[in-house]
Each structure stands twice: as C-alpha cells, then as structure tokens.
Amino acid sequence: MMENIRPRFNFGNKAEVVKLRKRKSKLHNKEDKCAPSNGVLGAHLALFCVAFRLANCFLVQSSFVPDEYWQSLEVSHNMVFTYPLGTNFTYGYLTWEWKAGIRGYSYPLFFACIYKILHLINYDSVYLLIWLPRVIQALLAAFADVKFYLLIRTMESPDVAKWTFFCHLCSWFTWYCCTRTLTNTMETTLTTLALLYFPLPGSKTHSSKKYLSLVALAVIVRPTALIVWLPLLMYHFWQEENKLRLITHHCIPIGVLTVGISTLIDCLFYDKWTLVQLNFLKFNILHGVAEFYGSHPWHWYFTQGFAVVIGPHLPFFLHGLGKTVIFIRCLCLMAATGISLANLKNWRRAAAYGLLVANLVPALYTGLVHQRGTLDVMSHLQKLCDTNSLSAQPQPDVLFLMPCHSTPFYSHIHCPLRMRFLECPPDLGEEGYVDEAENFFDDPLQWLRISFPHKSSMPTHLVLFDVLEKEILTFLEGNKFIRTAVIFHTHVPEGRVGGSIFIYERH
C-alpha cells in the first residue's frame, strides 16, 4: 500500500532534497550549549587555568632578575610604609632610576594598593606582602591563558587550538616568568589580551578601541613594548579602510587619556612635574645609560635569547612555521608549535609526552633550585626583626657585600632593620666616575678598612657570596666576624656570584 502512495508525492522526475527548518526549542539547542565556546566549558577552562597558575606561583621560589623587586615591590613598599630611619633608609628602597624620574609609578601603584589594603585591615605580614602580589599576578596570567586559547580558536581549528594551548602551558620559560612581579610579565599579559582584539586574519573578536587601550597600558607599564607593537600598528593602519577615523576616534583619544592619567600619577608621587616617557627616552636612548648595565649584540635575541626562551619547542616551531600560510598567525609563537603537533598524526602522542618532559625538568629546576639563595637569605635576616633583637644594643645593622640589587630589600623584611647595599648608579657624565660596587670589588679589603676605621662604625652582619670570602678573610677574623649561616644559591656560579651565600655576625 505504501508503495502506491509514495509516488503520488513526487511532483517531477527529479528528486528534491527537503530541508528541515532548524527548531529554536531549548531541547534542540542543548547540544549548542555544550560547545567549546559555551560558558560551561569556559568556566571549566578558567578554573583549570587558575589552579594551574596558582601551583605555578608556589613552585617558583627562585630569583630571576633584580627588576622583579626593584621596579615593583620595593617601590610599592616605599609608597605605603615608612620607618623613622632617615634618608639613607629611604634611598634603600629606590634605585637611581626613580631618583632620575625615568620610571613610572603606575605599575608599582598597583601593588601599593594591595599593600595599603593589607595595612588597613592589619594583615600586612611579611608573608602576605611577598606572596599576595605573586598570587594576583598568577591570576592575571590565568586570565591571559584563557584569552590566549580563545584567540587561537578564532583563527584556527579546535584541534590546532587545543594543541597550541597545550604547548603554551608546557613552556618552561612561561612557567618560570609569568607569576613574577616583573613589568615584562604584565606587558606580556596585556599584549596577549590586546592580540585577542587585534584585527588578525580570521579574527572574530576585533575591536580597535579595546586593543589600542590595552597596548597603551602595556607601553605605560613598559615603554619598550612599543617595539613589539609598532609593526602591528603599522599593519593595522595599512589594512584599515577608514584611516582618518582610526587616528581621530581611537589612537589620539586613547593615547592622550592614557599618557595624561599616567603623568598625573607620576607627578603626584614625584611631587613635581615629571614626564617619565620623555626622561626614559633621554636617558636610555640619547645618553645610552642602559648600556651601563650591560648590552648584547643586535643578533643576540635571534641567535641566543629566542632559542633559550622557546627551548624544547624550537623543532616544533620550525616545523609548524612551514605548515602556516600566513606568517602573522605565528605572532603568538606557540601557534606554530600547535600547528606542528596537530599535523603529527602518528607521532603526536609521543611528541607531546616528549615536549612535556623536556620542559618539566628545566621548569622545576629553575623554579625550585637555581638562584634561590638571594630569597632564602632574606628569610634568615627577617628573623632579626624580632622585638628583642631590635631593642638590643647594638641594634642589628646589615651590609650586603654583593653585586648591587642582588637581593630584594625591605619588601621581604618589613621592619625597621638597618640595612645597606653597595650602590651602582650609572655614570651621568662625571669624569673618572666609578660606582661604589665597582670600587669595592676592585680592592675589597682596602675598601672595608677605609669605610670602617673603627669597630663602633662596623655593621653587625655581613652578607656575601662565597667567592668573596678568601679576599676579606683577614678583615673577618680581625674583627671577630663568625659565619652563622650558609645558604645554597646555584650550581652554576659565575664571576662575582657564587654558589652559596654566607652570613657573618660580629661577636
């Protein structure tokens, strides 16, 4: 019977494909709500990233460069807390860069607000002062991780996005740096967020106002961020159809507003009219002051720096680069490695495990072992903040006989303990200028004898690397200094930086 009825509905010889209308019921859309772009999966991804970066934060217990303290936490601590110890104490917080007005207060103000809140609620313990800024930086890194994944998903397939995110989380150098209180770290976070809204090919989240605002903040935090963004800004300008509107409605208003607010903050804390960006250009570019602290040849970033940063990802990066048609898609370098793994059909799992292990070893070693002594020594010295110690006679007086800014300072002590380190401001044109640190290391024994002709003027504690001990042993023994602590620092001593740190106390 059905065979007889069916032909009656054929209104022609050609069979027609019947398209069903997509229903808008909640039941029909249930599958869409479980899509990767959905808020449920987004929440799971966010929770995972938060947990991952918090573990990252507490598994990095080493020092990297002085800037992670001296351009952030030390300045923030100085903005909130003061102790009645005179001008020498105050100078201990601020390096010459802040004296010269070439560093802005916008980034330290971020952590100063955290310190102020802790102070107001009477929770400003040294433990929280050290770790809370790092935890907040870890949360910002987690937020950037999520946005990075969304960025790749707008440009590539879900499979490539998944493997790119895996490569990003595997990176030993990202693990090593992303939870530190460095201006570079904040710059990286802001850059990642800005790329999400940048008009990349295939991007569906383009917003000139959002990305330019984030770029402006990155440049305020770290002026050299402009070097990274200048080619991208030129690319956007070249691709933009309405160039005049881009400049008049976005670039100029955002730039003026950001620089204006930053300048207002700097003038408030410098207590005078200060244009940090102009001073930065004058000192570092025109006078070449930055070279005082060392410089690299122009090819260093390509021949050495890049290889170290990308590490075990390098073979996958080169392989993925060959698979990528549009080079601009690889401005997040991990995109190329993700493309590589996505194309390794047979060896993908083995390659992923190999990449994970190859990054895990340096990540844990550099985070937990290498260069940790300069932080551990501050924990030892913090014990001198005991009320009985500070009320004793003579009061503790610590001198760091180390390359300048080797350790953090009052942000990791948080008490009115007298401390001093060898200063090293750059040569600003003074004839025959030699900084204090260099003068000391030229002849340590002579410098100590001249600086402390009487025992009454000597510090009670000396902090030094083990490589210096032999050179000043006569001074130590003659003035009854006894070694009270030996703290491991690194397996790879270099120059004036030794493998261990010694604390000597005068008896």
From TrEMBL:
Where is it chiefly localized? endoplasmic reticulum
Residue ranges crossing the lipid bilayer per the database entry: 104-122, 128-151, 211-234, 246-265, 325-344, 350-369
Q: Does the keyword Acyltransferase apply?
A: no
State where the protein is found. Endoplasmic reticulum membrane
- Positions in coiled-coil regions: none
* Keyword Transferase in annotation: yes
Q: What is this protein called?
A: Mannosyltransferase
Any one GO MF annotation of this record: alpha-1,2-mannosyltransferase activity
Q: Name one GO biological process term.
A: GPI anchor biosynthetic process
Q: Which GO terms describe its cellular component?
A: endoplasmic reticulum membrane
Broad EC category: transferase
Q: What does this protein do?
A: Alpha-1,2-mannosyltransferase that catalyzes the transfer of the third mannose, via an alpha-1,2 bond, from a dolichol-phosphate-mannose (Dol-P-Man) to an alpha-D-Man-(1->6)-2-PEtn-alpha-D-Man-(1->4)-alpha-D-GlcN-(1->6)-(1-radyl,2-acyl-sn-glycero-3-phospho)-2-acyl-inositol intermediate to generate an alpha-D-Man-(1->2)-alpha-D-Man-(1->6)-2-PEtn-alpha-D-Man-(1->4)-alpha-D-GlcN-(1->6)-(1-radyl,2-acyl-sn-glycero-3-phospho)-2-acyl-inositol (also termed H6) and participates in the nineth step of the glycosylphosphatidylinositol-anchor biosynthesis.
Cited InterPro entries: GPI_mannosylTrfase
Q: Which UniProt keywords apply?
A: Endoplasmic reticulum, Glycosyltransferase, Membrane, Transferase, Transmembrane, Transmembrane helix
Give the source's domain of life in one word.
Eukaryota
Q: What is its EC number?
A: 2.4.1.-
Q: Which family does it belong to?
A: Belongs to the glycosyltransferase 22 family.
What is the recorded membrane topology of this protein?
Answer: Multi-pass membrane protein
